[in-house]
Amino acid sequence: MRIHRLVGTVVGTTLLLTATAPVAQADARPATKASESPLSRGTLDPVALGAGLRAAHDAGMYGVYSSVRDGAEWWTGAAGVADVDTWRPVRPGMLHRVGSISKTFTAVALLQQVEQGHVRLDAPIGDYLPDLVPGERGREITVRMLLNHTSGIGDYVIGAFPSLAHGSAASLDEERLRSIRPGELVRLGLAAPATGEPGEKWSYSNTNYVIAGLLLEKVTGQDAEAYITHHVIARAGLHHTSFPRSPYIQGPHPRMYESFYGLIDPPRDYSDYDMSWAYTAGAIVSTTDDLNRFYRTLLGGKLIGPAALTEMQRTVPADGRIYGLGIYAIDIPGCGRFWGHDGAVFGAGTIALSSPDGRRQVAMGWNLMKYQRLTADGSGVEPNPIDDALNQYIVRALCPAGTTFPAPGSHSVTGPARTVLPGVDLAPTASAGTLR
Question: Which long-range contacts (CB under 8 A, 24 or more apart) does 16-23 make?
Answer without folding.
Answer: 16/72, 16/74, 17/72, 17/73, 17/74, 23/91, 23/92
